[in-house]
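so my prof wants the structure for this chain in the tokens format not the other one, which i didnt know existed until like an hour ago. anyway here's the sequence
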Amino acid sequence: MQIALVNNERVEAFEGGRGICPICGAVTIAKCGPKIINHWAHFRLRDCDPWWENETQWHRDWKNNFPLDCREVSHIAPDGEIHRADVKTPTGIIVELQHSPMSDKERISREEFYKNLVWIIDGREFKNNFDIYHALPNPESELAKDLIWNKAKRHYDGSNRGIFLKLKEVQAENPGTTKANFGERRVGGWMHFMYEIEDELNKNYNGYHQFDWVKPRSTWLEAQCPVYIDFGESHLVKLETYDETGLKCIRYISKSKFMYDVMHEEKVENIAKKWFNITEWVDAQNFNFDKYG
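here's what i got, hopefully its the right format
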């Protein structure tokens, strides 16, 4: 744990410190030294929250981007169940930082418990299995509404550069075809390539890309709460569904924008939905990542 109660104050671990666990009230002792991350541990070898995982430097760095009062906040359900959230923002958004693989059962339990939850996943261990390919136009644009993309996949060079059909051409041969039922009907239309729409796509680009996750941690593809992957760069990679065809895609979101929204929006679904100048706010923050990378 990063936080314990000392004289009723939430404080970080300090050499020789003794405190109280904010959840169970048990005695904690400070573990400090040059070869470990300073932290609090229960005096008796147990942890009162079964969801808690051993903290890495990655966890600590992310937590330190938030005010102290937002870190390791106890969250109590109406039935009295209690867990310690990694981060709870002033607006009520829960941020869970996950380094280790997780089972479907545990993910579902946390999502049902916290509800207004967003995941940040440490993606550095599987970065070489996560390929990000060609850009996609804003799914709300008129351009995107007429395009049906071939799924990108490792070693499928053509699809990875961008191959698509046009819905109107498909409908000319198969009336009644929509993006939603496209996979159930006989395909028509002509194959098109990225170079045909590159200029128009650039005008309608807002961070979406095709991807292929080889040997995926599949629970994150099935998550009901938003999932953002941190590959150690200045942006996060959000897992999304692109359109009615069900095409899985990613969207780049800057860490600065993510931080602004989780601290100001009340619902996780509103993160990265509105765009305006946040430079003044970002400049005032002491983030430990590249703010404008």
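also thought this was worth mentioning. DSSP finds eight helices and 17 strands in the chain.
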